[in-house]
Amino acid sequence: MLQNPEQLLLWCGASLVAANKPSGLLTLPHGYDPSLPHLRSVLEPTFGRLWIVHRLDRETSEIVVLARTADAYQHLNTQFQEKRAFKVYHALVAGQPPWENTTITNPLHSDSDRRHRTVVDPLKGRSAVTELRVLRRFEGYSLLEAAPLSGRTHQIRAYLKHIGYPILADPLYGDRTHLSHNLLQRLGLHALSLTLIHPKTKETMIFEAPYPHDFSSML
Fold this sequence. Notes:
By secondary structure, the chain is an alpha+beta fold. About 15% of the residues lie in helices and about 30% in strands. The protein has five helices and twelve strands. The chain has helices spanning about 5-10, 40-45, 70-80, 155-160, 215, and strands at about 10, 15-20, 50, 60-65, 85-95, 100-105, 110, 120, 130-135, 140-150, 190-195, 205-210. It has a six-stranded antiparallel beta sheet with strand order 6-9-10-5-11-12, with helices on one face. It has a four-stranded antiparallel beta sheet with strand order 1-2-4-3. It is globular and about 45 Å long. The two termini are about 25 Å apart. The model has no long low-confidence stretch (mean pLDDT about 90).
């Protein structure tokens, strides 16, 4: 497991730190085994006390913003709650969609079964929106860009499963055919960019994270 804070760091200032969390690294301490490494335990020895602003899937490689002060945490947390922070993901999915762009607006119901999956449910679901764009098509799979305009649990994963193009190697929403690939043995979802407002300067900041090696090897 990658645990060098300098390798994870994307940006550092007095108010916040932006890090490129690798797939498999927890964001917060594990509920049953707090000895497992997590993002805060990796970064705090170098950067001091940090506040996690947004929760992430362990399996996703993703940009994570951590506040360095209580005031910055409050400001950043409000941005995420009010959907003023914007993320763009790239996903490797099974199949080749016939469309170039589409928007999905089906209501999503979280924690719907024993495996805590999110499903499309017109009756119990809450409103959600995700914009999708095909970037490249390969033999048997495609690279999509996904821009969630709401923040439901597993939103992108559940939507792609629902429309018939599950993310490669997704243990919750994929089927056995798509659980693994010769070059990709983890969830094929990567947060490419995160846009937010700096809590002090009020500047618009755009953080970008390069593809991990296993993800880029599929392209």
